[in-house]
Amino acid sequence: MNNLDKAIKIIKSKSYLAFDFDGVIADSFEIKKIAFSKLYMKYGNEIANKVLDFHEHGHGGMSRVKKFQFFHKNFLNIELNDSQVRVLCSEFSKLVMKSVADCPEISGVSQFLKTYYKHKKFIVNSATPQDEMKQIIVDRGLNNLFSGIYGSPITKEENFKKIFFDHNIKPKDLVFFGDLNTDFFAAEIVGCDFIGIGDRIDSELITMKSTNRYAFLDNFENI
């Protein structure tokens, strides 16, 4: 069975479809990457490049709070206090909010949502701060489509536990759409099926986890 057929079979078997946002609904991964680079450029190109490398290689799904703490501690030898973290998060939000709200969608996602809206419940599970995520969903005109929007400061795994409780469902009732290895591992930890979107998930992982519980697609076209 090819990936498209597997994805369609998985989707039809679920009552809930959960989505990461950046790189899954909106083509916003590069926007976040550029924002991190801008914030750390004042420390020099070497530091900014380390920040970009960390963000691009397996850590896109980490919350920005944890990233700022990691960047400062490991690259600058600085322990951030809560106030400093809040300032950085505020600066980051100012850099990305409008751009993320206005950026192109992942190919085919609007038609996909329209196709399944009457038959499935939609949920967002993102590492973006929850209030910010809710506002972006409103700004993109998608707020009427989603039964729940979950974001940081808690992790995607913790969000899933809340989702299962809030909606009185089990992991087998839901499939998670993500674009990163961390999304796949979150789904695997909580026990739900997974559909990977795009090319940022490691090819070795795709091969290793080639079962009927997982599918990997370029975008939402033809689903």
Brief digest:
This protein is of the alpha/beta class and 223 residues long. The chain has helices at residues 3-12, 29-40, 45-56, 64-75, 82-102, 109-116, 130-139, 156-166, 181-190, 203-208; strands at 16-19, 121-129, 146-152, 174-178, 193-197, 214-217.
Describe what you observe in this structure.
- The structure is a single chain.
- This protein has 10 helices and 6 strands.
- The protein has helices at 3-12, 29-40, 45-56, 64-75, 82-102, 109-116, 130-139, 156-166, 181-190, 203-208; strands spanning 16-19, 121-129, 146-152, 174-178, 193-197, 214-217.
- With 223 residues, it is an alpha/beta fold.
- It has 2 domains: 3-27 and 105-217, Rossmann fold (3-Layer(aba) Sandwich), CATH 3.40.50; 29-102.
- What overall geometry do the principal axes of the alpha carbons give? globular
Q: Helical element count? A: 10
CATH architecture assignment of the largest domain: 3-Layer(aba) Sandwich
Query: What is the radius of gyration?
Result: 17 Å
Calculate the mean pLDDT score and round it. 92
| CATH classification class of the largest domain | Alpha Beta
**Helical proportion, percent range:** 40-55%
Poorly predicted ranges: none
| Tally of distinct domains | 2
Give the SSE order as H and E letters.
HEHHHHHEHEHEHEHE
* Strand percent estimate: 15-25%
- The CATH superfamily label of the largest domain reads HAD superfamily/HAD-like
